[in-house]
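seq:
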Amino acid sequence: MITPDLLARILRRKGSMFQEDLEAHRTQLTESLTGASVLVIGAAGSIGSAFTRELVRWPLGALRLADPSENNLVELVRDLRASALAPPDNFATSAIALGSTEFDHFLAAHPPFDYVVNFAALKHVRAERDPFTLMRMLQVNVLALDALLARLAQGPITRFFSVSSDKAVNPANLMGASKALMEQTLWQWSDAVPAVTARFANVAFSDGSLLHGFLRRLEKRQPLAAPLDVKRYFISHAEAGQLCLLASLTGDNREIFIPRLKAEQDLSTFAEIAVLFLQEAGYTPRLFADDQEARQFAAAMPPGCREWPCHFTVSDTTGEKDAEEFLGPGEQADFSRYRHLGVIRHPTRTPERLNAFLTTLNQLRAQPLWELATISQAMEQAVPELSHRVAGRNLDGKM
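struct:
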């Protein structure tokens, strides 16, 4: 159970850090969204659904939600209908994926949207474990985005937003590099399609995250596993939705929004959070140096046992970064416009490298055999700041 008290202990703050900025820009948000038509792509994911819950608080003219996860999309609609967050009368959903033929026909069947907001992405570091998942990540994060922007450039649009990641800065893994390429794709089309993005921290308990895994392990009476040495910034679901709302509606063309977080007070290790999580659930962590022993203890736990097995280790898998950062080399953020947000204005464009990569990637996709090393090499050439440490082990090989 994720309680407000648990979130406050993990985030080291109560309430949303962006509430002041929302209030300060309420008039601008109201003027921008009153009667506006909005398309949210990837609306049923953790961040997309949080954004949608924030969006429907405003007087929209029309809202369309697209996501290939039919079940999650249905749950989001049920959640909206069962709460006070009523979508506009002109509201519909489609269980379709960005980059698909169905999505292309969807766009052709609708008049241009005022705002298009994209949360479709593959976001796991473990996506680089094989060439097939890696190629799908690049198709979703880069190629499908490029095709979408080319389509949107043909008609009027007020603003386009696509979510990035702190992992795009000095990336240590191919997922982060794909997000760096995503940012470059935005800037490539920004003269025709005004674009904004946001890099931000891990969303606490988002679907598929390690913290979300803690909930599942507790339900299934399984041990908790976490790295001792990996530090991350965290924000809540509501904060993620609010950050994206502020960026997409109040930002200017070619701007990157980042949260105002401080390493000395906002970084936490996953092991620290695991302990807080168990304490909130009424358990005392019991540490095991061996994962097999932790599993055996979990299997033998009698009813009412208030100790919970944990296996905390140092990180030894490919692509893990010790700590996240929001500013790349030569980048500066303006913290004067917002209370808890910084804005990077007019980031550097590298069209030659991006175009060369897109050409190479399409050539590789046309080949009958895909090799991980070849795709990785093409990404390293396109993102020279990529520092890709191959450890010989990926997250699928650990508990």
